[in-house]
Amino acid sequence: AQSVTQLGSHVSVSEGALVLLRCNYSSSVPPYLFWYVQYPNQGLQLLLKYTSAATLVKGINGFEAEFKKSETSFHLTKPSAHMSDAAEYFCAVSDMGGGNKLTFGTGTQLKVEL
Amino acid sequence: DAGVIQSPRHEVTEMGQEVTLRCKPISGHNSLFWYRQTMMRGLELLIYFNNNVPIDDSGMPEDRFSAKMPNASFSTLKIQPSEPRDSAVYFCASSRTVGYTFGSGTRLTVV
């Protein structure tokens, strides 16, 4: 079975600082990988996805993620944090054998401080 | 594109009552997923459908939970009887290829 592990349930950065949210995956086959963001009292919104094309994936709101097979990682980054980035972020992996079923990580709460 | 539509947004019910949550997926999406989110357990997949057929319901916590998808544009998740531990946010999501689109969720409180 495929799985993802998000390191750090809470991350705090200063406004303008680099954002780095970590995600490692486990998969016996080439995975599809995703990052979702959840703002308070809202559903999850797709930030970006890796589907075996370019290893550096750019998403919305200035976020990007790099697929590194050798490290089984798919970390999410943003060069300069903004207060509006404060939210919970979920990494997910696709189970290609199960109708596109996604398995989610436990989430990382990002706090942005002035 | 109206997105995935869930109703109601909020539901407060008494223990023992029947609760029905509703979902309208995006037109043309052939997969539908029901998730439950709590602080303690995070996001849990309850059940998913492909082309209106239930594929995997192993995440449904117990027989009190049931889900149906009578057609491509509508699905329900029913809890009967409801219990306080069912209090959570329930999300519906739909998909056509890779990746989901989520609805805004139904916040269920069972008192």
Summarize the structure in words.
The complex is a heterodimer of chains A (114) and B (111). Chain A has 114 residues and is an all-beta fold. Chain A is built from no helices and 11 strands. Chain A is globular. Chain A has strands at 3-7, 10-14, 19-26, 33-38, 44-50, 56-58, 64-68, 73-78, 87-95, 101-104, 108-113. Chain B is mostly beta strands and 111 residues long. Chain B is built from no helices and 11 strands. Chain B is globular and about 40 Å long. Classes of the chains: A mainly beta (114), B mainly beta (111).
Beginning-to-end CA distance, first to last residue of chain A: 41 Å
The number of helical segments of chain A is 0
| Portion in strands of chain A | over 45%
Q: Can you tell me the residue ranges of chain B where pLDDT is under 50 for at least 5 consecutive residues? A: none
Briefly, what is this?
Helix content of chain A is 0%, strand content 56%. Chain A has strands at 3-7, 10-14, 19-26, 33-38, 44-50, 56-58, 64-68, 73-78, 87-95, 101-104, 108-113. Chain B contains no helices and 11 strands.
Observed structural traits:
heterodimer, A: 114 residues, mainly beta, five-stranded antiparallel sheet, globular, B: 111 residues, four-stranded antiparallel sheet
